[in-house]
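Moderator note: this is an archived Q&A kept for reference. The question asked for a predicted structure of one protein chain; the sequence and the answer are reproduced below.
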Amino acid sequence: MKKQTEINPVEFAKWFRELPEKEKRKGSQIEALRAEEDWENFSELFRKGVCSICNKPLKTFSVSNPCLHWLLKPKGFKKNHFKYLMENFRYFRISAYARWVAAIDGPIRNINDLKDEHSGNKIFDFTARYKHITWSYSCSDTDFKGHSTSRNSDFPHYHMQMYVNKMPFIKYNDFHIPFHNEDLCDLELLINNSDIVKHSYGRGDGMEAIFSNEDALNFIIDKSTPTTDAEAAFHMSTIVMAPEGGTISGDEIHEAFEEAKATGRTMASVLRERLKDANIRTIVSPGEGVPEAMPRSGRNKDRARDDEI
């Protein structure tokens, strides 16, 4: 494993808070452009069947050359080989790879990181899906602190689960995956300075990025195209109430329905445009195409996450 340059998170946070806003914005823009370039390179090579990390075909496997494309389970990759990925790649790279691969097959939709669907106090907890493979990552408060009563897990760690064709390949309790020093620095920055430090996976962002942002939800309502596909990312239901002292005729609702049907827009979008004085409430929920959360607690999953607009 390459030696990492250690950064003091307290000193970095102090320096960053004192940085002029102009410099902060400039730095964010540079990082965003770099991430977009990385995504373009990654996705282009991936679609050609080539790994952007090792530049070898995605189907190749060699114990002497650990690579994140092993997460695609090439022939020869066994559960015990995962320890080589643990040693050579830090959490943020491993999780980013799973998210980006999932985004290849369905941006946002294939990454369930909704906080309301994951129980307990978690540092992170999400599930990503690519075709027949599903990865889940989880770290609770106690995982991050280390379990003092256990010699096998008395250090900051996280858990990972991998299903192939809906069958377990790696289970949560198979590994206590230690964080690398750089991970610990980044996580402490995110936990203790959430007002100024944000983490984005760029094209690998998931459903939480939508449901935690009202502007993003409004964009989904206005720009989505209705579908009967069972793999839809969102479900919407809209309630329309006449303004105080006013009425809404059935003809107006029917005309809005016909316009939505003819233009391929959502009913909510058309109603908000045509009935500006009405009280319109649209409830957005995760669709059937979003992978179910796979929490370590094993509790029943609840898809009743609604955001009203």
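Archived answer notes: The chain has ten helices and nine strands.
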